[in-house]
Amino acid sequence: MDEVVDVDNVLENINPNVGVELPTFGSYFPRVDQFYIPTWLTMQFLANNLICFTPLFSYGTTVWSIKRSKTALGFSIDICATMLIASILRVSYYLITPYEVTLLMQSLVMIFIQIILLYTSLQFRPEEYKFDRLKPVESLSQLFKDSWREFFPVNPYRSDWKGFFKALNSNDVLGFSERMVLVLFYKVLKFFDPSYQRVNAFWQWNDVRKFWSFLLWFAVSQLCITVFVAKIMNWDSITQWTGSLVGSLGLLIESLLPLPQISILHKLKTVQGFKLILLVSWLCGDILKISYLAFGAKNISFMFLFFALFQMCLDIYIAFLYVYYKYYFAKRRRGSLPPLIELQDLSISELKTVHNV
User: Fold this and answer.
1) What stretches pass through the bilayer (predicted)?
2) pLDDT in tens, 75-94
3) Quick check: helix, strand or coil at residue 196?
4) Which of 60, 121, 175, 299 is the most interior residue, by most CB within 10 Å?
5) Taking Cα atoms as reference points, which of 285, 309, 348 lies closest to residue 54?
């Protein structure tokens, strides 16, 4: 006989969680197993573009600030000269010794934003930055003569050398050498100080057209020489020497970027006109660039990393000046603390006094 199946008992013993899948609201839509990420969207791609387009943000905010305030007071247009010359040299260096395309693109973007920044800064340049309003500085030849007369009795432009060699001693030679090092350091400080006149009014011209004519002449001549030596004549020995010179010079000039701003902060003794966002972008750019050069870039010379570290040290010093003049200098000015001696404000005679002490 057929066995009678108790349907009610069977239904009670069925586990509702096993083998039975009830339809849900989401089951009526296409199922997505994972989030789709394009193959080209990698961390390397993001880092490369961040490196390339960071100048647009850091210097773009400065352009906006100058236009809004209608004055470039507190901003040194020497920054534009430094970055434009350094970027042009880096482009020339790429034609001789190809490096990371990302850094080449950064140089091109830097040239673009610096041209806009220079145009805006010249449009709202204060009268205090005009060449006629700047302080003169002693010539190198005059400083050499003064230092020579102090240590040696012989006129360097006459022929009484026998008595000179007889009276010569090591202390005078060491003292003169040390003084000339101090003189050269003094001249370098004055050159990067926008408040002092330079030879031929370099980058202090009253005529705005001279800025653009110089940049055009420099870019065309630099690129023509590079293409002629590296591509047309194909002189290997001269090409390597030229590449090392151009690359080192471009990196050195770029690493000196903070010096004009340091001079302006020392002169004004205030951070008015210098935007915190620019300082933050410099420091973040330094960290990003050093990280990229150390861990992400390929075919990079050690020079890139060395000069990047040097520039970061100067930017950190600017950060120190920003905090000092914004929060502590007012207390010193009120007399609570003794005033500090600013080296770039001293004349060469005052530098001698400090040196002798």
Assistant:
1) 35-60, 72-96, 102-122, 214-233, 245-264, 276-295, 301-325
2) 888 889 989 999 999 898 88
3) strand
4) 121
5) 285
